[in-house]
Amino acid sequence: MESPKGSPEWLEVFTAAERPDLWERAGQEEVLDRVWPEYNHHGNDSPATFRALVPRYADFQMLFTDRRADRIVARGRAIPFRWDGTLADLPAGIDALGPRALSEEGGPPTALSALAAEVDDTLQGSGLSRLVILAMAALARARGLRSLVAPVRPNWKDRYPLIPIDRYAAWTRPDGLPFDPWMRVHARLGARILRPAPRSLHIAAPVEDWQAWVGMAFPDDGQYVFPHGLAPLTVSGGEGDYWEPNVWMLHDAMQLA
User: Is position 88 within any domain?
Assistant: First the structure.
């Protein structure tokens, strides 16, 4: 696919349909998987959605490479789904989005949802994440999908895990832009907040697993703040229960170029 406007000359972009070999290589190298905290890889429902993306939705998955070094530097994952444009019809979060998109009930998709924009940690802050969003919008436009939505994972929310996501999402800087940097990237591209999603991605697992994932002990029942967590972990009866919050944001794909 064509690189987004403003891309550096060394950047190439391919869909998984165009380069299935490159997509497989990205999974084997696991460099981009490591941008997520370990616990994020253990959702109860979300893995089924991510596993279904290729080959079923290979046209909507993209890889960004540095042609100078034959290096994969970013990945964008997205899924088309049917949405009537109202808040009432918007899924509760990633866990609710996946089954709806995969079922394809009610007719052809009308919107594209971002699932992940992953940038090699050595290049984070370089503007690549913005290009991933622009590439997703281009894919949506090419297929007549006007809306690009994103269940944004606010990347400073782990600094404020006790603040409810609805309050956090409303925080702004003096210039009126969102307080959160990742939400700010979307806002600068014209996105607006649709609503917070306090129960977007569910992870429930034995305490022993949680202790291994986050590197701390949970000696008793209760609520715990843990490294990289966006909300508290509830421990009860040997089980750890966690709902990761997101913030739904909306782009007009037809204008995002």
Answer: yes
Strands 111-119 and 147-152, by their bridges, are: parallel
* 0.90 surpassed by pTM: yes
Q: What is the pLDDT of residues 144-191, one digit of tens each?
A: 999 999 999 999 999 999 999 999 999 999 999 999 999 999 999 999
CB 214 within 8 A of CB 228: yes
CATH code of the domain covering residue 36: 3.40.630.30
Could you tell me if residue 141 is inside a domain? Answer: yes
- 5 is written with which tokens? 């406007």
87 domain residue, yes or no: yes
Whether pLDDT at 206 is above 90: yes
Cα 247 to Cα 198: distance, rounded to the nearest angstrom: 8
* Structure-block tokens of residue 74: 């970013």
Residue 177 burial class via C-beta count within 10 angstroms: exposed 0-12, middle 13-18, buried 19 and up: middle
Q: Supply the range of the domain harboring residue 55.
A: 11-198+247-252
Residue 217 lies in a domain: no
**pLDDT-derived band of residue 255, with 50, 70 and 90 as boundaries?**
confident
Treating both helix axes as pointing N-terminal to C-terminal, what angle do 181-188 and 128-142 enclose, rounded to 10 degrees? 50
Q: What is the number of other CB atoms lying within 10 angstroms of the CB of residue 206?
A: 11
Q: How many domains does the chain have?
A: 1
Buried b (16+ CB within 10 A) or exposed e, 34-47: ebebebbeebebbe
Q: Distance between CA atoms of 42 and 57, rounded to whole angstroms?
A: 22
